[in-house]
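Table 4 source record.
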Amino acid sequence: MRIVRFVTATLFLTLPFHVARSQATGATKTAQTTHKGPCDGAGTQAELDDCFSKLAKSADTSLKSIYRHYMHLLSGEDRSNLQSAQDAWLRYRGAECRVSAGGSQGGSEYPMNFDICVNELTLARIRQIKGDYK
């Protein structure tokens, strides 16, 4: 049962990454191409890298703030459980993003793909924490 939940959570958390990556690289030829993303103005790979890096850092800063907020509110076992879950999630995020961006390892798109993954997973984690502790 735990494996099923883990696989389901992994699929749920990584889906936004794959959508964002296809949008960022222009692979989506449907109505999504009319959607303006935050890095659409970037003209070079270096500009894309910089833009997605800033998005990932901003999301990470927001996550740290949310995490600190709930760690301040919680106590006892709830606080300990959140801390353990967050530590495990951070390890998961790093590993998942290395795998997700791995197809471009050594190439100029790797930093962008890694940061897109970090951004999307981090935003999903923020929603998850907020939902868990309403």
